[in-house]
Structures are given as structure tokens and as C-alpha cells.
Amino acid sequence: MNYLEPMIDRFSNQDRYGIKRSLKESLYRLFELIIRANRMPAGPKRLDGWIACDVELELLRYLICRALHRGSKYFARGNHRYLLEQVTELGKILGGLIKSVSAKTSSR
Known about the structure:
mainly alpha
């Protein structure tokens, strides 16, 4: 997500309290949740942590799409496609983690 933050910083200052702030807060919450989930002991708590990450990622995806629908003033043409591909890839990784932890938790 090193790609997203510089893009957000290029938003105009008038958007600071709107979409810019929402995107940054969601991005930082996602980082925090990933770190917390990774540090949790294996089991149901870790599963809950990864699910919380997935929910926050979905919110971030929504905010990116919302910025795209407001017009192209936020993202250049190619940037938004690449950005959504990265978010989708992260979602696939999280989905795999959730399945893995879920299978280990249910087999106990």
C-alpha cells in the first residue's frame, strides 16, 4: 500500500477533511489491524483479527471506488486500475489466511 499514500497526499487541501482523510484513516486502521492480527496467538482470536482486516479492506475498497466515482480528479486513469488490482490481491491473501486459520481452528 506504499503506492496509495503518495496518491492520497496529492489530493487538494480542500479535500483534506473529506475523502483524503477517510482514505488515510482507513489505510492506517488496516495496517494496525494487520499488525494486531499477526501478533495474536493462533486460534479463534487470530481468525477474528484477520476477519477484521478483511472488513477494513472492504471499506478501503469502497472509499477508493467512491473517489473514482467523484471524477478523475483524484486518480489518473491507469493508477486506479493498478490500485484496485493491488487491493484485490491483498483481499485474496487475506482470504487465504482466513481459510487457513479457520481450518486449523475447526480441526481442534
